């Protein structure tokens, strides 16, 4: 045996046998049949590969449905390539290039990474629904939610976008027929100032108020605003005056460019406001006819005014004077059972010199001047009573040489004199003359300081003096 083992040929045979045994030990899988060997090729299963639609002309059509939306994909390749590829590298698509409106069944195509091949695709087709799209113009409305803070009111909402409230809405033809309103929404809950949104989203709703998703809107946002203010109303505008005109000038007219003004206040205060007279014209700044602007400021519980500035058309002329004679003095306020008897002037009439612009004076009639003596509350006896004047706008009384603006009136108790005695002249005897008695101290006497007693002015202005006592030339009646 030893001699045989030492033979070279025997050693070669033994070496070959041992090599075969070692090869078998390395490559044969003990868990499988003797014929199954290990391999570097494997498979991968993607249970829900998303189907991607491509090629659709989106300017004309829209895909509204696809069934199914995923498919099962089985692929095969080397282990290394399968491990290197991500799920996104496996693309399953449906080509809609030649699709037409309506339902249709189309085949699926698969794009795989290099070195990987398709084993199975299930299903291999899908059913898609294609619809024609249309574009239509709509005016955007503003929907408000909630209520403003207590005491405040909501004004009219507005669209402030430069191109206005019109937008273009693109939808499938069937959905376009369901459109009810196109709107933006602003929340005003507990707000005490104007709510504004420069990028309010435009939403399309159907006739039942449900949002239609998928609508394409151009522009998609707009600038919307909802005014939140105190309660307000419009009232007549009345101009007041301060200062005095130069001695040689008188007002002909003061005409605001607006007749009414908007005032804002709490409701209880607003209910009491009948006129706004917070705009004041400083006459000392008026040197000639022309345009002037005055501020409109909040007064007497008014919290805001709009507009805040008012333009006036002011006309002035040189001052003139005119005397009106035989003006009747009216006595008012006599107590029950008492009679007022005019003593001075006896006739109950007087003359009065007026000052103002020539154009204004020329139109003044005797009936435009009201002279009143108020005897309310006076006891029987003779009293010096101040006279109250009501003059046309921009007209003043001129009292020369200390002329008082009073009358002497006797209050007579009719019940005491009914038994006989001297017969008293009738009440309000009409006589001429100028009062000569001096008024009681502290009593109001004249309107030298700028008041005519008339609080209502032409064209919304308030009358009043400009501080002059004399005119520059006279007119005759």
UniProtKB/TrEMBL annotation:
<dbReference type="InterPro" id="IPR053154">
    <property type="entry name" value="c-di-AMP_regulator"/>
</dbReference>
<feature type="region of interest" description="Disordered">
    <location>
        <begin position="414"/>
        <end position="477"/>
    </location>
</feature>
<dbReference type="InterPro" id="IPR012505">
    <property type="entry name" value="YbbR"/>
</dbReference>
<protein>
    <recommendedName>
        <fullName>YbbR domain-containing protein</fullName>
    </recommendedName>
</protein>
<dbReference type="Pfam" id="PF07949">
    <property type="entry name" value="YbbR"/>
</dbReference>
